[in-house]
Amino acid sequence: MNLTGKQRRALRALGHHLQPAVTIGKNGVVESVLEQLEENLLAQQLVKVKLLRTCPLGKEAVIDALTQRTGAALAQAVGRTLLLYRPRPESPLIGL
Fold it and tell me: Which of 10, 26, 31, 71 lies deepest, with the highest CB count within 10 Å?
């Protein structure tokens, strides 16, 4: 899923106040992390993910793994915090 610049700006504004809902630590991107991310994406569509310093993967590797395995789009990456977006299949909360 590709987002335009205007869509990314709108999502960044909506995600500014969010707290990280998913944390990736020393185990990296494992099934439990993906399940937690899936649940949050279905419920909220816009999710902040925090990478701890103990994460064995680099930021780009984590972004690739999460976007490919969940179908979400990266709206923002600042430091070790990622903002991911995936619209709901039915009744989207966030209209872009």
Answer: 10
- Provide the pLDDT confidence category of residue 89 given band limits of 50, 70 and 90: confident
* Measured distance CA(63)–CA(43) in Å, rounded: 20
Structure tokens at 24: 């990736």
> For 27-49, what is each residue's pLDDT tens digit?
999 999 999 999 999 989 999 99
CA distance 73 to 33: 17
DSSP designation for 22: E
| 44 domain-assigned | yes
Predicted model pTM: 0.90
Instruction: Let me know if residue 95 belongs to a domain.
Output: no
